[in-house]
Specification:
The structure is a single chain. This protein starts with 30 loop residues before the first helix and ends in a 5-residue tail after the last helix. It has 2 domains: 177 residues, Tetracycline Repressor, domain 2, CATH 1.10.357.140; 139 residues. The N terminus is likely disordered. Helix 3 packs parallel to helix 7 and helix 3 packs antiparallel against helix 8. With 351 residues, it is mostly helical. The protein contains 13 helices and no strands.
Length: 351
């Protein structure tokens, strides 16, 4: 007996058998059955981007300070929940367009496996969690002395302002800025930079100008590579980003060449700085990491230009063994230089 459209319930027509999305379920699960889809809508696989919050903890040589660790991991959790809020809000707002996209149509909201009310509830819970963690962290930072950001309104205020700006920018991106050429790329990059700054405010530790500049160029590189991959793979086809029609591969290639060069130069200059103990200052011994960083960026360019990847940088990190190995090696070398060598010097081995 043929299933009538009344049996489909509130699911969109694109989910009816015979439609382009016929490979997704035609019946929505109950409340408990939707919980896994609510978690999936939070996109925990993309929380790896928020690891940028941890950079300050490592480079400021505060990794062994448990109080600082606790504050920075609170910041990490707050950004994860804030990011999930934005993901779900975007999925709700773009659900009709996503149903026309070859990949996005399988998202929980677009596919109908997560009901609209439960999606809204999940977004509210994530937003409340992010706000609560921000409040707890801000209260903890009031007790930190000395505060390197006291002259700027205290580190707690700056962290709250940073995560608020992150949410506001992303909401503005979803409703307006993503339709403006170049602005869309800068907003994506700003999200990465704000995460790195938030970690410094949560610690709190002073910020080297070169650290900030290098993070900015590296974030622009990832954002531009993402746009290039989208343009190369999907172009201006139905369901793709409308802004892609205002870019060309030639323009993106030139912009990528500029930011790659600037990233390598600023990172190298950052490692040349003397180890003066002023927070996120560089350490000339970190120059040993330059070849690893150079290879990592070259490998990323290879994946973007030869394999047409880069549309999802967070997934590319785990999917490409060479990129992952390079990141692991850089982390190990940095920890060895900033923590291992000083420890050996202060605890000499005697025979």
């Amino acid at each position: 007996m043929r299933r009538s459209t009344d049996d489909i319930g509130a699911l969109p027509s694109s989910l009816i058998p015979g439609s382009p999305a016929q490979d997704v379920p035609t019946r929505r699960p109950g409340f408990l059955g939707q919980i896994p889809y609510a978690i999936r809508a939070m996109r925990p696989t993309q929380w790896s981007k928020n690891a940028l919050v941890l950079l300050a903890l490592v480079f400021a040589r505060r990794l062994t300070d448990l109080k600082v660790d606790a504050r920075v991991f609170l910041a990490f959790a707050a950004f994860c929940l804030a990011a999930s809020t934005i993901y779900i809000v975007n999925d709700i707002a773009d659900r009709e367009k996503d149903r026309q996209h070859p990949r996005k149509r399988l998202r929980p909201v677009a596919s109908g496996r997560l009901s609209l009310p439960l999606a809204v509830l999940t977004a509210c819970v994530c937003a409340a969690g992010a706000a609560a963690l921000t409040g707890v962290l801000t209260a903890q930072l009031l007790l930190v002395t000395p505060d390197p950001f006291a002259a700027w309104g205290t580190s707690g205020v700056l962290f709250a302002l940073t995560i608020t700006t992150y949410v506001g920018l992303n909401l503005a991106y979803s409703t307006w800025l993503k339709h403006l050429v170049l602005w869309d790329v800068f907003v994506i990059a700003a999200g990465f930079v704000l995460r790195a700054l938030a970690g410094a405010f949560a610690a709190p530790v002073p910020i080297s100008p070169w650290f900030y500049i290098c993070a900015t160029f590296a974030a622009l590189f990832l954002a531009l590579a993402k746009r290039r991959a989208e343009l190369a793979n999907v172009g201006a086809a139905a369901g793709s980003r409308a802004i892609l029609g205002q870019y060309t591969l030639q323009l993106l290639d030139q912009l990528i060449a500029v930011v790659v060069t600037c990233t390598l130069i600023t990172y190298s200059l950052y490692t040349f700085l003397p180890a003066d103990g002023s927070g996120l200052a560089g350490n000339h011994q970190l120059m040993i990491t330059i070849p690893f960083v150079l290879f990592g960026m070259f490998r990323y360019l290879y994946l973007v230009y030869v394999r047409n990847e880069g549309e999802h940088p967070d997934e590319l990190l785990w999917r490409d063994p060479q990129i992952l190995a390079t990141v692991v090696l850089v982390v190990l070398v940095v920890i060895g230089v900033l923590y291992g060598i000083p420890f050996l010097r202060s605890h000499p081995i005697t025979l």
